[in-house]
Design goal:
The chain has 167 residues and is α+β, with helices and mostly antiparallel strands. The protein is built from 5 helices and 5 strands, in the order ααβαββαβαβ.
Length: 167
Amino acid sequence: MAEDLDRVSLTLPPDMTDQLDGIVEDWEYASRSEAVRDALRDFFTTYEWERGDETRHYGTIVIAHEHDHESDVAGRLQTIQHEYADVVTSVQHIHLSEDRCMETLVVGGTAGEIDELANRLRAIGGVKQVKVVVVGGAETEHSHSHDQEHAHEHDQDHSHERTATGE
C-alpha cells in the first residue's frame, strides 16, 4: 500500500547536503527523503518532550552508580523505582566492575513524570551519571493500541508484568 506523501522543498548549504548524502550512504537509507523523515521524527519527539505535555512517552533511563554496600545506593535506587512503579516497566542491573554498576530502566509516562524520576535518581549520592533517552510518544505515526491491534500467540509465554534482573 503506497503511503500518501506531501512534497516539501528543502534548501541546504552544500556542506550540509554533502553530510546528508554521506549519512544516507553510511546508514543505507533508500533516499535523502527517508533520512530527513527519520530526522524529523526525532525532532518531533524532542519537541513534544520539551513541551512537557501529557503525551505518553517511552524510553530508557540509564544509571551508572557506585557499588557500595555501606551507602546502600542500590537500595535507595530501588526505593525510588518502587515509588514510580506506574512509570518504570522493567529494570536491568549490570555489574560493570567490582565497584561500579549500571541499571537500565524501561519507562513509560509523561515528560514530567519521566523527568521527575530521572531527577530523583540523579540526586542520590553515589550515582555518577543518569541518561534519559525517549522515543516517540503514543501520538506518533507508528503507535498503536497494544490491546487492540497487536495480537500475540497466546500459547507463548508473554508477560507484561514488571521484571528485574540482577542482585
